[in-house]
Every structure is written in structure tokens, then in C-alpha cells.
Write a structure and sequence with these properties.
Number of helices: 3
Structural class: alpha+beta
Strand content: 25-35%
CATH topology: Glutaredoxin
Number of strands: 5
Radius of gyration: 12 Å
Number of domains: 1
CATH class: Alpha Beta
Shape: globular
Helix content: 40-55%
Length: about 80
């Protein structure tokens, strides 16, 4: 069975979010196929956070369920192991 996740993360011209990279690496190591959505400007990030009612990126979804950010993903993956 294919495990899939959706990842929204920030990659700005002058800053790549380390938490987004960490989330991607954790998902890859856990065998997920990742549908990545890269937020490429501060405006995109701010709009996404407003629309989703969240204060930070990255945001990870597995099977349509919001897991949260990198720390929440780490706990989710540990519990699933």
C-alpha cells in the first residue's frame, strides 16, 4: 500500500525553512510519497497561514488529516512505528 502525504513548506529566495526540510526528510525516510507544495514568497506563506488558520509552516497532511508541523509529524511517525 502506498503511503502518501501532502507537505506545504516555505522556500523563499533568501530562506529555506529548516523545519520544512526536516519534515520532508522524515516523510521520505518513513516511505511516504510526498505531494509538495512550495510557498515561494512571504505573501504566499501569509495567505496560506490565514486560509488554513495556522501560525507556522510547514504543515503536513496524511490521508487528508492535518498532522501539523515538523514536531507533530515526528510524534505521529513515532506513534505509528
Amino acid at each position: 500500500m502506498t503511503k502518501t502525504a501532502t507537505l506545504y513548506r516555505m522556500v523563499l529566495p533568501d530562506h529555506v525553512c529548516p523545519f520544512g526540510l526536516r519534515a520532508k526528510e522524515m516523510l521520505d525516510r518513513a516511505g511516504y510519497t510526498v505531494d509538495e507544495h512550495i510557498l515561494q514568497s512571504r505573501e504566499e506563506v501569509d495567505a496560506y497561514e490565514r486560509e488554513q488558520g495556522v501560525e507556522t509552516t510547514p504543515q503536513i497532511f496524511i490521508d487528508g488529516e492535518r498532522i501539523g508541523g515538523a514536531d507533530e509529524l515526528e510524534r505521529y511517525l513515532e506513534a505509528a512505528a
